[in-house]
Here is the input.
Amino acid sequence: MMAGFAGYKQKVMLRAKVLPKVLEQVLSNGVEVAALLDADGSLLACAGDDGRVVAAIFANIWSSFEDRSSLEYILCELENGRVCMTKVTPSILLVVYGKPEAQLGMLKHKASLLKKYFEEPLNQLNHA
Here is the structure.
């Protein structure tokens, strides 16, 4: 299990080339894909093999439930895996996808860590 992110500081400046490297840090314990998507399902950054396929499918699932104002996470058990989805900003979705044996709590924990890491710098982009 991931203890944290190397070099995490309160003020984080993101570089596009670094995004996949940060996402890669959660690829263990059955996690196969970590991705950032825009509201349309376009892939912004990805770590793992099936990111492009995962992106469009999960953005569509999120949009089906998005009208619920208290929605923070969606946890799904699928035929071929498990997924945790959450919004990092109003327009950016984070997806953590794992094998069927990946624990949902662990997926949510990893998604929470990534969300916390990305939230401030990505929100700054929204306001720029």
Remarks:
- Confidence is low (pLDDT under 50) at residues 7-12.
- Helices lie at 19-24, 51-65, 104-127.
